[in-house]
């Protein structure tokens, strides 16, 4: 009977709904000192390193003026800093500060702790199933990161082409 069950293909919609429910749980139990977009921006800077404001706006799905306001607020709190680009001093990059990295680590620990408490209440077999799914969950995160990076690269290339007169 177990063998036949393993031959049934997984239902992506059911898996997605379960994961979405966990995202909701994470948001509900996470710290609320900053907006979700601000937290996501810090996470992007942590994963990718310093970025231009325009890239951050594209990655996070907000307008450039909104990202400027958000970065200014993060800069005032000491979580990010603006720095000149390495190849072109006219380019300004937004970078995570040590305080920003510390904030992210604390935020992740708080979220992880909430999940760990709940996972500790699961039967061992279910906890093992979650542990077995860690590589797949990490791969989902990586796939999303790659998709977002490709979108930013394509948009930046189009913007550069327009600037250089290749596209009207």
Briefly summarize what is shown.
With 168 residues, the chain is mostly helical.
Overall CATH class: Mainly Alpha
Q: Identify the quaternary structure here.
A: single chain
Which regions are unreliable across 5 or more consecutive residues at pLDDT < 50? none
Largest sheet: 3 strands, antiparallel
Tell me what the structure shows.
By secondary structure, the chain is mainly α. It is built from 8 helices and 3 strands. The protein has a 3-stranded antiparallel β-sheet.
Write the layout of secondary structure elements.
Blueprint: H1 2-7, H2 12-29, H3 36-48, E1 51-52, H4 53-60, H5 64-76, E2 80-84, E3 92-96, H6 98-119, H7 124-132, H8 134-163
Antiparallel strand pairs: 1-3, 2-3
Helix pairs in contact: 4-5
